[in-house]
Amino acid sequence: MRLILATLLLWCSSAMASTSPLLSLFEDGQHLTPTAAISDVEAKHLGEIIEFIADINDDKLLYQFTVADPQSHTLYKLKLDGSDGKVLDKTAHTLTNDAPQLALALKLRQHQQSFSTLTQLALGNTSGYLQQAELDQDLGISYLELKVLDEHGSHKLAFDIEHQRQLPLLKWD
Known about the structure:
By secondary structure, the protein is α+β, with helices and mostly antiparallel strands. The protein has a single domain (about 20-165), classed as Nuclear Transport Factor 2, Chain: A. Helix content is about 30%, strand content about 40%. The chain is built from five helices and eight strands. The protein has an eight-stranded antiparallel sheet with strand order 4-3-2-1-5-6-7-8. It is globular. It comes from Shewanella yunxiaonensis.
């Protein structure tokens, strides 16, 4: 009886993880993949992507970006349609010289990196789709924190920008 219950529980949990609405949209072939959306935004040369989020709103796949332009000291917030990459919303804000977003964008340029290259390095051989990624700096370490979605659910990774290596994730209660 225990074996039957354990098998049923395992089957149900794997079925629920594989039917994630976001994962289904990533895999349906009718939507831009996260990496394609990131490449499209980088090609527009607005600045350096410092944050990416994939989300569903009203059954539509949306990609949200935060882009910092160190030259114009501007922070752009973009919302793209996940099916065709069309920009649905764009706002711009002026950054001060000491804005952390500006420092992160400059760090990318200093290391001659792009957001897409960093995400590829951080993901390595990890299977799944990028659900969220954000550049951050803490305790003197500049890193990329990623959330990856696959058939088993989502998990987080952290990648050190300067030393080009995975970082352990700390967990708090």
